[in-house]
Amino acid sequence: MAELTNAAFFNARSGRSDELGSELLKLVSPSRQEKGCLRYEIHQSKDDPHAWMVLEDWRQPSDFDLHMASDYVRAFMAKVPELCVGKVEICAYRQVSPQY
């Protein structure tokens, strides 16, 4: 069971949504291979094509910390100011309902 679920929200600059989506999708494979990663998914809003979300489950918060410190995530985060309006909003959650 995940100790930590994050929803990260990105709002692409005008004309940069496809590029943001491409950069986000590059994170999927290496993230899913990381220790403690239980889920890593990219979603694009059906209502606003500039709105993107990453849903991720981590076995431990420390696994997420290591993920954020990885070279490829740091390189991606350095691109965020040119691709996005505003800052990335990362909301942390814990599951309270029973699992299936």
UniProtKB/TrEMBL annotation:
Pfam families: ABM (PF03992). The keyword Oxidoreductase applies. InterPro entries: ABM_dom (IPR007138), AI-2_Isomerase_LsrG (IPR050744), Dimeric_a/b-barrel (IPR011008). PROSITE patterns: ABM. Gene3D superfamilies: 3.30.70.100. Residues 4-93 form the ABM domain. One of its GO terms (molecular function) is monooxygenase activity. It comes from the Bacteria. Keywords: Monooxygenase, Oxidoreductase. SUPFAM superfamilies: Dimeric alpha+beta barrel. This is Antibiotic biosynthesis monooxygenase.
